[in-house]
Amino acid sequence: MMINTEWYRIFLHASETLNMTKAAQRLNMTQPSVSYAIKQLEDALGVKLFDRLSKGIVLTEEGHALYDQVRQVFDKLDYAERYMKQLGQLNEGRLRIGANGAIIRDYIVPLLDIFRSQYPNIRVQVSQQKTGQILEQLQQGLLDLGYVYLPVKDAEIQVVDTFVSPYGVVAGKPFAVLAKAPLSAAQLAELPLLMLSQGSATRSYIEAWFQSQGVEAAADFELNSLEMLAEFAERGYGAAILPRAFVASKIDEGALLELSMEVPLPDRHVGIAVRKHSSLSLAAEAFLNIQSSRFL
Fold it and tell me: For 94-155+276-294, CATH number?
């Protein structure tokens, strides 16, 4: 049964004033209109809500029961309206981002610093995951934004922005002599190689680069994080292919050396992915605006 919501609002004011005339004044209505709405509500519910007295009205037992329920509903509606205003002003809300470790450290954290300074009341959640996991969570509505390596072939995913992440070959000081002249892919493959474990998008990218030059490369060290690859490279265990932004400070300090290649590694393109046909939250839109302005 659908009952006019306005009748409940009128009932609420009549219950609180216990006077039809005062309720009408609150509602900017005529007293007969208030009385008519109450009568319509009573008829629709099949119960008497007020006893009419010479000096006003009083709630019946059924009226008291209805008032308690209606008051809770309108309190919730008031709260919902206030909350929506807070969301609209970005004083409330949540932002959920998924990305791999290097992208989080080198690209997302600087953006989050700006975002948090502008919108300190937005709850930010960041999860470090592989591209495949990020796409799955986007599809399930568990993430607002996913930073993934391109290309992405998924009919349910849309890429709304992109940027470039250059990669380079780095090694520790024991390999300094190799930094004097460009290396071929075959020469690099003869060195101890430090790579991420099988199954990652980065590992596939590196293997594809070797294969494009007719070289099959095998990993001497298979590790699960770029941090570990950089650590082992710095200690002189071999050469690693890493994002330049990730190791820039180590190169500047001289802890790592970048080895020049005859055929440079292609830049990797990172896409900011969202679930297709889904509206972005205001917090996600605000973050993307910061992203766009930073990479202009």
Answer: 3.40.190.10
